[in-house]
């Protein structure tokens, strides 16, 4: 995990840092909202996440915030197919707990296979 404001320095390439972060991540929790779909950089990141997910190198964990299935499908029918959690019926704490459990389970499976 990295936080752009904490780690980027003047002159750093945002694209390269995003790519490095994507390559080194096994999970990508993405919060889809109208704002997310309207901005360029998130779309660039999403392209990389989807590419890695299709290749089996990363797991996309979608969270819908103030959008529903129809809104997500209007932006991307393939993203609407992915099971997601929604902040309209699940608390942020519950979503965070579920994501943490998935990461812990994956880490334990990886350790067991080594």
Structural description of this entry:
With 114 residues, the chain is of the alpha/beta class. The chain has one domain (26-113): Rossmann fold (3-Layer(aba) Sandwich). Helices cover 59% and strands 12% of the residues. The protein contains seven helices and three strands. The chain has helices spanning 4-7, 14-23, 34-38, 40-54, 69-75, 77-80, 92-113; strands at 27-32, 59-64, 85-86. The protein has a three-stranded parallel β-sheet. Helix 2 (14-23) runs parallel beside helix 4 (40-54). The chain is globular and about 40 Å long. The two termini are 23 Å apart.
Summarize the structure.
The chain has 114 residues and is an alpha/beta fold. It contains 7 helices and 3 strands. It has helices at 4-7, 14-23, 34-38, 40-54, 69-75, 77-80, 92-113, and strands at residues 27-32, 59-64, 85-86.
């Amino acid at each position: 995990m990295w936080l752009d404001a904490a780690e980027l320095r003047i002159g750093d390439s945002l694209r390269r840092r995003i790519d490095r972060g994507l390559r080194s991540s096994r999970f990508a929790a993405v919060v889809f909202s109208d704002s997310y779909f309207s901005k360029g950089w998130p779309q660039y990141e999403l392209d990389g996440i989807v590419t890695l997910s299709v290749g089996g190198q990363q797991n996309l964990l979608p969270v819908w915030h103030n959008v529903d299935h129809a809104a997500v499908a209007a932006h991307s029918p393939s993203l609407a197919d992915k099971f997601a959690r929604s902040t309209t019926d699940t608390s942020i704490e519950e979503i965070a707990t579920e994501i943490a459990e998935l990461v812990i389970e994956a880490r334990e499976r990886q350790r067991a296979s080594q």
